[in-house]
Amino acid sequence: MKAFQKLSLLLAPFALLILFTSMNMKPKKIIFFGDSITQMGVAPGGYVDLISKALDPSKYEVIGAGIGGNKVYDLYLRMEQDVLVKKPDLVVIYIGVNDVWHKQSMHTGTDYDKFISFYQALINKIQGGGAKVVLCTPAVIGEKKNGANEMDADLDKYSAAIRDLAVKNKLPLCDLRTLFKTYGAQHNAEDLAKGILTTDGVHLNDKGNQTLAEALLPLVK
Predict the structure, then answer these.
(1) d(Cα 119, Cα 116) in Å, to the nearest integer?
(2) Residue pair 30/92 in contact by the 8 Å Cβ criterion
(3) Is the pTM of this model over 0.85?
(4) What is the CA radius of gyration of the chain?
């Protein structure tokens, strides 16, 4: 009996180590939350797909939660079902293109003040659920250089608001607006409206998806 007790005492630390290790083997769950750019990003070669393939599947679970046409308040309305119930460890918010773009194309965009309010509410709810948050500025609505695209001024304004929210909430930021403008300045010699990092001035081509994946990957590890 004494020998059994001694053996139990010797084995106890190893049992605790195995238990602790098994508890920490749960993969980190990352949700990419956004519009059609994210919806398309889960397809082969999309930015979500590229990030997923770059991460160890035993350590990370990657989920795309993008829906075409979504604006910031759409994300807020479906946040519970598409994000919070899944108990993510990290949520990447990539929204804003339609909030600006649809002002002109559909007259259903999001007013600037409301955009900020809804965006802050998103951050609060996601953090309240225990997840970390990464913010992204919207990249482009047209790829012409030097502010020549019709909605550049508004897109710059909304992107600046997201930068301010990142500073205010002490959150990591993937500044795609600056990244894509800089890339265009260097590689869009013919001043094309599309075809540099996008297929249509908004949605990403292969190079755009690769560029976005490379920018986001360090922020989600």
Answers:
(1) 5
(2) yes
(3) yes
(4) 21
187: which 2 tokens?
């590689």
Q: Which long-range contacts (CB under 8 A, 24 or more apart) does 160-166 make?
A: 161/112, 161/115, 161/116, 161/119, 162/96, 162/119, 162/135, 162/136, 162/137, 162/138, 163/137, 165/116, 165/119, 165/120, 165/123, 165/135, 166/135
The H-assigned helical ranges of 131-175 are: 152-169
159-183 pLDDT per residue, tens: 999 999 999 999 999 999 999 999 9
Reduce the DSSP state of residue 135 to 3 states and report it. strand
CB 171 within 8 A of CB 4: no
CA dist 219 → 53, 81, 171 (Å): 15, 24, 10
Q: How far apart are CA 89 and CA 78, in angstroms?
A: 18
CB 41 within 8 A of CB 35: no
Alpha-carbon distance values, 130 to 81, 89, 151 (Å): 16, 7, 36
Angle among Cα 124, 221, 165 to the nearest 5 degrees reads 30
